[in-house]
Design goal:
By secondary structure, this protein is mainly beta. The chain has a domain of 102 residues: Thrombin, subunit H, CATH 2.40.10. 4% of the residues lie in helices and 32% in strands. It has 2 helices and 16 strands. Strands 1, 2, 10, 11, 12, 13, 14, 15 and 16 form a 9-stranded antiparallel sheet that branches. Strands 7-6-3-4-5-9-8 form a 7-stranded antiparallel sheet, with no helix packed on it. Strand 14 and strand 15 form a beta hairpin. The N terminus is likely disordered.
């Protein structure tokens, strides 16, 4: 089936990963809500420079004090990038925010921008300096290798992406509840069909909530049974029919399929 798709060194610390001091307001992005400021403290804004202005392009997750995990399709080696940690509102100056230039960027060797359905949409950015961990800047936890979440497992997408298909990006960080759609469901012909591989994870698909341009590279946050948040997905693509099209859930790179690669990098 042919589908139209639209891309979208560890240091020990007193802070543990995945346990934000400012707990997300998540009791129960497109049709998301404003996140509680700094409640997803591993979320970063990846920005590129054009005409002396830095512009948000993708999200990402801080997984070590000098390493960020994002999507391969977010990277264009012809551009200059910076990573901004500690952000909530992109339009105002915030004392918690710090912009850091990359020391190097590593894109998965098997990533192919022409064949998105092959997967491997993952990249790592080594920062030119270590960040200091605070209540507003924390590390994300990476799930154990080969972890597969069950159907309808509650997860949250976060990002500054477009508020609706073709609309403006959000100034403030958004969050939205997006339950996991298991592989058997997501690979059905009236869902994503053969475009979905087991190295991916789907979430959403209700036709209401979805990721959109600008959310790419950002995390799919899921709390494990011990109460620790883990980043199980890297936002990869949505349907060209719309960011929140029914039965076309947001597709993420499944992080637990890349633990070995992440460790090697």
């Amino acid at each position: 089936m042919t589908s139209i798709i639209l891309v979208l060194a560890l240091i020990t610390s007193t802070y543990g990963c995945g346990t934000p001091p400012i707990e997300p307001d998540a009791p129960r992005v497109v049709n998301g809500v404003d996140a509680r400021p700094h409640s997803w403290p591993w979320q970063i804004s990846l920005q590129y420079e054009r005409n002396d202005i830095w512009r948000h392009t993708c999200g990402g997750s801080l997984i070590a004090t000098n390493w960020v995990m994002t999507a391969a399709h977010c990277i264009d080696m012809k551009l200059n990038y910076r990573v901004v940690v500690g952000k909530h509102n992109l339009e105002v100056s915030e004392p918690s925010a710090k912009a850091i230039l990359p020391a190097k960027i590593i894109v998965h060797k098997q990533w192919n921008p022409v064949l998105l359905s092959i997967g491997n949409d993952i990249a790592m950015i080594k920062l030119s300096e270590h960040v200091s961990l605070t209540d507003q800047v924390q590390l994300a936890c990476v799930p154990a290798p080969d972890t597969i979440l069950p159907h309808n497992y509650p997860c949250y997408i976060t990002g500054w992406g477009r508020l609706y298909t073709g609309g403006p990006i959000s100034a403030t960080l958004q969050q939205a509840l997006m339950p996991v759609v298991d592989h058997d469901t997501c690979s059905q012909n009236d869902w994503w069909g053969v475009s979905i591989r087991r190295s991916m994870v789907c979430a959403g698909g209700d036709g209401v909530v979805g990721g959109c341009n600008g959310d790419s590279g950002g995390p799919l946050n899921c709390k494990n049974p011990e109460g620790v948040w883990e980043v199980h997905g890297i936002a990869s693509f949505v349907s060209g029919l719309g960011c929140n099209y029914p039965k076309k859930p947001t597709v993420f790179t499944r992080v637990s399929d890349f633990n070995e690669w992440i460790d090697e990098v």
